[in-house]
Each structure stands twice: as structure tokens, then as C-alpha cells.
Specification:
The complex is a heterodimer. By secondary structure, chain A is an alpha+beta fold. Chain A contains four helices and nine strands. Chain B is built from 23 helices and 20 strands. Chain B is globular and about 70 Å long. The chains are: A alpha+beta, B alpha/beta.
Chain lengths: ~170, ~575
């Protein structure tokens, strides 16, 4: 079963690497990973999608928590949450099927962001299973290139601030 | 009024921090990237620098110092090869949770990433083998980083922390202030166990008919041995210990079942398989303890007390976890217990296993065996010594035959099983406990892995007793070859190539002698303990093909012990 975890990390040199090292060193599965800044510039948010048995998943959460640069780990599989991914997909088209592809794009609420005389690039946003469906459908036209961002996710509703932002005493 | 702060160089800040952390010893080796630090060290008098002969030696010395004293061990080495030579020792400290802070020199900031001379990405290399590590990128972060390093190494589940110091930063200047507090928002060790969990554990223990305490090194690290002894004595609980746990409860006490696991006692492993409530205290269900995890203590309700939440359910799924400092949790559990159960039936069962298969070896054929040497050593020292073992057969025989009575008197490489640990670790242990006899035990194989540190011991005239148990084999590997690998003794026979250990030790500045006669053992030991003007090396030439029993084959159930060699033809 796939599970989504969000990790608040110190926005510090090497913090991302610690998570990557943990996954490779312990042999945990990693389906996707994405990282970016949060509303607090000293903290970055990482979204991980992983799969494995419950026992392994329990270890993943505990080992992530054990890292010194990890401020908070939330398992979103058990929480109401918004989960999104963005994909850019370039497909072949012919005059005869161009309208068809435009229609499909509309069904997936996507946008055409580039066009040449042979190819169309579509931008599609949504939950990962929607992206999977779009890729499946577009596959028959011939996908030339594709890029996925990996999942980003937030818990629904307003969150209480769970982390202090106290800084170390200033030396200057 | 604003306090005026001193402007110091990086190297000066480095030593100011060490002074404030009460560092007494640095185990180190100079080199290009740490020249600025060594320049300053020349005038520093509040600590002593021990010059090693190899950086791995520095790491094990710091470990020995930390394990024997409970304080943080400190290592200082240069960049590149200096740093990479510490890697085995850092891994050793990580697996055995030893508080060590390692300072590595690094090439100057502008050269990082350029494949500069003696550059190694030691922060990258040690990421998976340290509790945490830092590269100091700004002199303003130097003091707070060192503060954090000592704090992280010594609190929670202890471990090695590495601080990488670029050369240019050691020469820069800034105002010095040592932060009183460290704020690490991602690091909040839990010290006090959950009250309702402790209550539940007490209830379970009260209703137990066959309880058993399974004690690991965490009890010693937390300083909870007194609490453990009270809990065990007041309730008449049997106590079995892991390799690292030996010393937490006196091995001379009737309630001690000795070590459990692969080379544990028959009765300890029987007790594990038959207990109805098992309390794991600061232990981590290591595979050398559990054998087959599915059959390990399968009849027992398992309670696991550990400071590391990730240790819970990692190897064996437990019924009742309590996350907290074992010292506190044991005290609270003991207060909650109020137990009057009579365990005499359980004890008579345990004692019948004790009689069924005692620890035993041949001692009538006039040939010298390691077991005999260890037993003599145990009788002579009565546990009033620090015993530092290496890895392999002699290590297991020490665990079986030496009666440890004090915490921090049993120093060994458990998790990583690092051959070459004993010689340097004993030197570190000596600095932590001057005045106490320090004994280093090694096989002939492991001894040769870090024997260069005898020079360090001789340089400081340390009265350490280095004992080599020489069977001219890599004995434990040979044992596995005999039992599980078709008796192909592939590259384990050292007899043709071993050096003359007496001459070697003398060349390195030690007193040395050798024996292969059991009748001379006591004399040899007495002589060694009587000489205190420097290091002594005694070689005991022992029976070559002796094996360690009982033995639980790897992955087998602990109940399926091999108790002796099937075809004993020695």
C-alpha cells in the first residue's frame, strides 16, 4: 500500500541528504520525494510517498523522527488531506487527432502549454491517480517526454503551530 | 551594560569550548588541515593530548575512555586520510551508542569540492554512521556547533557526533560567546516513561509466574544499575544480560543467569524460552541475542523499556513499550510494583537447567585453554578491574567465565564486532580510570590489527596488562568453518605467519613474556600485576581447536543450543 508522509525539516545544509541516506541505508521503498520551502524560511517541507508493510512503515516514521534535523513527521494516510501532483506530458499529434487530445486534456482539467507541428505539451495537475489515468490515456498517442513533480500534500484545515521558532542566541 | 566579549581565532574558540565542556583528554594525530589547532594546542594546559599511532586507534581510545567513564570521548584528526581512518571506530561507537565527539580538519572553504589535497567529504561519508554531524561553514557558528555536538553525543541515546572544521575558519576571528542553551527543535529525548504504561507493566509483572529481566547496555549508560539491582533483589527476579549489559548486575549474585543469546548460558536461554513476562531494559533485541525472532520468548508477554522509540518493535514485536530513560523507568516501576509473589518454583526450574548443562571445559590434560586463563583472571581480580576485550572466541569466553560485578568494567565491541578494538580501547579506559587495573584481552588475530598503539601505551608508561590468547587461528571464524562450512579452514590458520609476540612487544617498548603451561598462568598473571612501570604483554599459547559452547546457530531458535562438540577428539 502506498502511503504519504510529510516531513518538516530544518532548512539546513545536508538535511535532505539525511533523509535520502536513511531510505537507501535501511532499504526502505521510496516512490516519490519532493521538497520546498514553507511559510517559515528556516523550515522546508518534504513529501514522501512510500510503500511497504505496516511494520516497515512504522519503522520509517520512527527513523525519520530520529533524525536530528526532523522537526515533525505526519502520516497523511490516516488524515484528511489534500494531495496533488503536477505532470508535463509531451505527446505526438496528427491533424486528425489534435481535437481529440484537446478534449482529453479538458476532461483531465489540464492545459496545453506548448505546441509544435508534431507535438503538444500538456500540463495536468491533480491527485497522483488522476495523473496516472491521464498518462495511461495519452499513452496511445505516443508520449515523447514526461516529467512529474512527485506528490505534495497538506493536512486539511488550519493547523496549530507545532514547532517553536526560537533561534539560538545570536553571536554577532 | 553590555558585556564586552573577547575576540578569538577559530582555534582559540575551539579550545575555549573544550575547556567549558570539561574535556580532559584529546586522542589525536596532527596533519595539514589542523595545524592551526595544533599550534594553539602547544600552549593549552587544561587538557592532555594523547598522540596515537593511527587514527583508528584514537577512535577506540575515545570509546574506551567514554565507556569506562561515562563522559564524552574526544578525537582530533586531520582531513582526508586522517578523517577516513576514523570511520570504523565511528561505526563501532554508533552501533554501541558510545558518546564521542570527533573533530576532523577539512580543507579551506574555497577548496571544498575541488578534489583538493587531502580532501574527503567526511560529512557525507559519516552521515549514516553518526548520530549527527556538522560542517562548520561560518566562524560565528563554531561555538554553538561544538556545544550542540557535545549535547547530542551525551544525551538521549548517546552516539558519535562529528564536527568538520575547514582550515581557514580556524584562522578567522570573531567574538566568542558560548551559548548557555542549545535549541534543537527536532531533538527532544523522552526521559520519563508514560505513567499508565508503567502501571500496566507493574500489573503484568505482579501476575507473572515466571518473570525474567533481560538487561542491555542501556542500563549502564543511563546510570541505572543501582535501580536495577533494587528492582531485582526486592522482587527476586532472575536477571540475564546481553554482552553490553554484563556488569549492570553482579555476575557473582545468585540471581544472575549470565549472558543470553548465541553464546549465552544454557539456563539463560532456557529461561528466555520459558518465561511468561519478559522485561527488556535498555536492550535492543539484537540478532545475536534473539536467534530466530519468531520463536524468541514466544510464551512471554514482552515489555520493552528503551530511550529510543525506533528500537521498539524494530526486531521483535512487543506487547508493552515504555519509551524513557531506563534509570527513571526502573525506579518508577519498582515503586509501583509492591510485589510479594513467591517464585521458588520458577527458580527451581532455572536451577535445574543450571545443573543440567553448566559451563564446562577440559582442564585435566595439562594443556592451556582460554577459559582457564579467564577464570584465573576473574578469581585474581575479583571483578575489581576494567576488562577490555577484542572480538571473537576469547570475547565470548570472557563473557561466560569472567564475573563482572561493576558497571563500566566490561568494555567490548559488541554491535560492530571490530577486531583491533581492545588494545587502543584499553588505553582510553586507563585514562578514564587511573589506579584501577586495566586488562586488555585479544586473540592473536585482533591483536595484530591495532598493535601499533602499544607504542602509545609505552610512551606514557601506562601499566596496562595486554594479554594475547594465541591459538594461531582466527578462532571464531575457524569454529564456523568447522561447524557450518565443511571444515574448509580457508585462510584462518595464522600459525605459519604469526610474529614472535614477545620480541614484537619488547621492540614496541613493553615488558613481555609467554607461556603455554596452565601451571604457569597464575605466576604470569601475578608478575604482570606486580609490574607497574609500563605496559606488559603476556602471550598465552592456548589449545588451537577449542570451540565456544553453548552455541545457538545463527537464525536458529535459542532453545536449539549446541552444547558441545559432537565428536570431541582433542
Amino acid at each position: 500500500m502506498k502511503r504519504t508522509i510529510t516531513v518538516l525539516l530544518e532548512n539546513r545544509f545536508g538535511a535532505f541528504n539525511r533523509v535520502a541516506t536513511l531510505f537507501s541505508g535501511k532499504g526502505f521503498n521510496l516512490n516519490s520525494i519532493s521538497i520546498g520551502e514553507t511559510e517559515d524560511p528556516s523550515i522546508s517541507r518534504m513529501t514522501l510517498v512510500t510503500s511497504g508493510e505496516d511494520k516497515v512503515f512504522d519503522q520509517i516514521i520512527k527513523q525519520l523522527n530520529r533524525l536530528i534535523d526532523t522537526i515533525k513527521v505526519v502520516d497523511l494516510s490516516t488524515e484528511p488531506s489534500v494531495i496533488r501532483e503536477l505532470a508535463l506530458i509531451t505527446v505526438h499529434y496528427k491533424k486528425a487527432n489534435r481535437a481529440e487530445i484537446y478534449n482529453l486534456c479538458a476532461i483531465f482539467e489540464g492545459k496545453v502549454v506548448d505546441i509544435t507541428n508534431k507535438s503538444l505539451t500538456l500540463e495536468i495537475t491533480g491527485p497522483p491517480d488522476k495523473i496516472d489515468a491521464a498518462i495511461n490515456t495519452l499513452g496511445s498517442y505516443g508520449i515523447i517526454e514526461m516529467a512529474r513533480t512527485g506528490t505534495v500534500a497538506l493536512k486539511r484545515g488550519q493547523q496549530e503551530r507545532i514547532y517553536k521558532t526560537t533561534q539560538l542566541p545570536n553571536h554577532s | 551594560m553590555k558585556k564586552t566579549k573577547q575576540v578569538l581565532t577559530g582555534a582559540e574558540i575551539f579550545f575555549e569550548c573544550l575547556r567549558l565542556e570539561n574535556v580532559e583528554y584529546i586522542f589525536g594525530y596532527p596533519g595539514g588541515a589542523v595545524l592551526k589547532i595544533y599550534e594553539k594546542l602547544y600552549d593549552v594546559d587544561f587538557l592532555k593530548h594523547i598522540l596515537v599511532r593511527h587514527e583508528q586507534g584514537a577512535m577506540h581510545m575515545a570509546e574506551g575512555y567514554a565507556k569506562a567513564s561515562g563522559k564524552v570521548g574526544v578525537v582530533l584528526v586531520t582531513s582526508g586520510p586522517g578523517a577516513t581512518n576514523t570511520v570504523t571506530g565511528i561505526t563501532d561507537a554508533y552501533l554501541d551508542s558510545v558518546p564521542v565527539v570527533i573533530f576532523t580538519g577539512q580543507v579551506s572553504s574555497h577548496l571544498i569540492g575541488k578534489d583538493a589535497f587531502q580532501e574527503a567529504d567526511i560529512v557525507g561519508i559519516t552521515r549514516p554512521i553518526t548520530k549527527h554531524n556538522f560542517l562548520v561553514r561560518d566562524i560565528h557558528e563554531l561555538a554553538s556547533t561544538i556545544r550542540k555536538a557535545f549535547y547530542l553525543a551525551s544525551t538521549g541515546k548517546p552516539g558519535p557526533v562529528l564536527v568538520d572544521l575547514p582550515k581557514d575558519i580556524m584562522a578567522q576571528e570573531c567574538e566568542f560567546e558560548y551559548p548557555e542553551m542549545v535549541e534543537l527543535r527536532g531533538y527532544k529525548p523522552v526521559y520519563y516513561g508514560h505513567a499508565s504504561q508503567i502501571k500496566k507493566a507493574a500489573e503484568k509483572l505482579r501476575s507473572a509466574k515466571r518473570p525474567l529481566l533481560y538487561v542491555g547496555g542501556g542500563v549502564i549508560m543511563s546510570g541505572g544499575t543501582r535501580e536495577l539491582q533494587l528492582l531485582a533483589k526486592e522482587n527476586n527476579f532472575p536477571v540475564t544480560m546481553t554482552l553490553q549489559g554484563l556488569g549492570a548486575f553482579p555476575g557473582t549474585d545468585e540471581q544472575s543467569l549470565g549472558m543470553l543469546g548465541m553464546h549465552g548460558t544454557y539456563w539463560a536461554n532456557k529461561a528466555i524460552s520459558n518465561c511468561d513476562v519478559l522485561v527488556a531494559l535498555g536492550a535492543r533485541f539484537d540478532d545475536r541475542v534473539t536467534g530466530n525472532v519468531n520463536t524468541f520468548a514466544q510464551n512471554a508477554f514482552k515489555i520493552h523499556i528503551d530511550i529510543d522509540p525506533a528500537a521498539i518493535d524494530k526486531n521483535v514485536t512487543v506487547d508493552l513499550p515504555i519509551v524513557g530513560d531506563v534509570k527513571h523507568v526502573i525506579a518508577e516501576l519498582a515503586a509501583e510494583l509492591n510485589n510479594t509473589t513467591d517464585y521458588s518454583e520458577w527458580w527451581s526450574e532455572i536451577n535445574s537447567w543450571r545443573d543440567e548443562c553448566p559451563l564446562d571445559y577440559e582442564d585435566n590434560d595439562g594443556r592451556l585453554r582460554v577459559e582457564y586463563v579467564i577464570e584465573k583472571l576473574s578469581n585474581i581480580t575479583k571483578g575489581e578491574a576494567v576488562v577490555v576485550t577484542d572480538v571473537g572466541q576469547h570475547q565470548m569466553w570472557t563473557a561466560q567465565y569472567y564475573k563482572f560485578v561493576h558497571p563500566r568494567s566490561n568494555l567490548t565491541s559488541g554491535g560492530l564486532g571490530t577486531m583491533g578494538f581492545s588494545v587502543p580501547a584499553a588505553i582510553g579506559a586507563y585514562f578514564a580510570s587511573p589506579g584501577k587495573p586495566v586488562i586488555s584481552l585479544s586473540g592473536d588475530g585482533g591483536f595484530q590489527m591495532n598493535m601499533q598503539e602499544l607504542i602509545t601505551a609505552a610512551a606514557h608508561k601506562l601499566p596496562i596488562k595486554f594479554f594475547i590468547l594465541n591459538n594461531s587461528f582466527l578462532g571464531m571464524v575457524r569454529q564456523w568453518q568447522e561447524l557450518f562450512h565443511a571444515e574448509k579452514f580457508s585462510f584462518t590458520d595464522l600459525s605459519a605467519s604469526n610474529p614472535d609476540f614477545v620480541k614484537l612487544a619488547e621492540a614496541l617498548g613493553c615488558k613481555a613474556w609467554s607461556t603455554d603451561n596452565p601451571r604457569e598462568v597464575e605466576d604470569c598473571l601475578d608478575k604482570a600485576f606486580a609490574y607497574n612501570d609500563g605496559p606488559v604483554v603476556v602471550e598465552f599459547k592456548v589449545v588451537r581447536e577449542e570451540m565456544v559452547f553453548p552455541m545457538v546457530p545463527a537464525g536458529a531458535s535459542v532453545e536449539n543450543m549446541m552444547v558441545k562438540r559432537l565428536n570431541n577428539q582433542q
